[in-house]
Amino acid sequence: MTDPMPMDGKGPKVPPSYPPRTPPPQKKPVEAPRPEPSTKPVTSSVPLPRPGQARLETRRPRMSIRARRAANWALTGYPWVAGQAVGKVTAAVRGWGYAHPEDDALNKAVRLLVGAAAADEGRRISVHLADQDDMLLIAVLSHTSSQPDETILADLAAVPGTTSCGTDASDDGRRVWVVLSTERPRSRTTPAA
């Protein structure tokens, strides 16, 4: 007769009713210290230089848009995405209920901004749109370390409805922006002679 369970000196061999003990997970490796930023911290209390004095170098703060309607899109850094950006910006502006600026002004402003950012030859650009007090802010970041090029400012200032425009470099990369008024343009009347 065969024995159904093998016996040894300690009793019958029975499979355990609990899972085998597993080793604890490995601890995470120690993280290397983070590098110190190469730029100087932002100083808000730096006085403006007098004529003939050198400007102190300060880092521009990161762009932040708070407490207002905003939209943004990340696009590839090619010049042909300007048409895509124009469509997205125009749809958002009309969706917010603004009839002005005209489509031609939005088209020209966005194409100039995207063209300037695409000329920096980065892999991506981001288009940011916000509104406040009947004004629209359109900002485009190139996400490269290119230096600001101010040649575009004259073209942006010529766009109808432009109240302000600018370009600068920050940690986010080069940014170019324009502020457009959403008020209906006033018709010009010529004085009677």
TrEMBL record:
Residue ranges, compositional bias (Pro residues): 13-27
Location of the region described as Disordered in the Swiss-Prot/TrEMBL record: 1-63
Keyword annotations from UniProtKB, A to Z: Plasmid
Name the record gives this protein: ATP-binding protein
Species name: Streptomyces zaomyceticus
